Amino acid sequence: MFAQNQRLNLFSKNSSNLVRKLLLGAIVLGASFGCQTQADYTSRTVKAPDFQVSDLKGQKITLESLRGKVVFLDFWATWCGPCVISMPEVEKLGEEFRNQDVVILSVSVDANPNSVRRFLAERKVSNRVVMAGNSGIDEKYQVSGIPAFYIIDKKGHVTKAWQGYNPAMASLWRKEISRLLKS
Predict the structure, then answer these.
(1) Cβ-Cβ contacts under 8 Å for 66 (sequence gap 6 or more)
(2) Fewest Cβ atoms closer than 10 Å to its Cβ: which of 34, 40, 87, 99?
């Protein structure tokens, strides 16, 4: 036990290896999953900015064309570790709500669509992938870090938003989408 006035220096030679390993593990986990923030818009009406993006086949998609559906936006990039970690959960979300009024749009902020195609060819991704490109969608949604996730209700209002990734988010996504489908 440490004396009341004695301070613990976690990086000194006298500190235990276990404490150093635990601290390093926490730092690595924090860096892997990024900072997690959540915004809850359910208590106020926030109109989702309209957008026009193109999928990898060149088909145009606008938010207005998705009116009447719950929209889940996933901003990501091929070079983003936490984005890659979150992809299987976003994919499961798409599978779970596939036959319902839900649209999952994975918005790549990569500059090169060919690198995105190569990346996706190596992974099983069935959700619709669109390119942010010069559309300004990332600026309109004030994306300051990726991954970033937004849920938009059937009337075109943002109800929830998250930046960063934590595996616990998946249950929050499902809960919010289910709530919106009932309303």
Answers:
(1) 103, 152
(2) 99
**Known catalytic residue: 83?**
yes
What radius of gyration, in Å, describes the C-alpha atoms of the chain?
Answer: 20
Let me know: does 145 contact 164? Beta carbons within 8 Å.
Answer: yes
Name 99's bridge partners. none
The tokens for 104 are: 């999952």
In tens, the pLDDT along 58-96 reads 999 999 999 999 999 999 999 999 999 999 999 999 999
- Let me know if 35 is a catalytic residue: no
Q: Which of 80, 102, 109, 161 is labelled catalytic?
A: 80
The reported pLDDT for the residue numbered 41 is: 60
Considering the candidates 83, 93, 109, 161, report the single residue annotated as catalytic. 83
**CA pair distance 8, 110, nearest whole angstrom:** 44
Quote the pTM value: 0.78
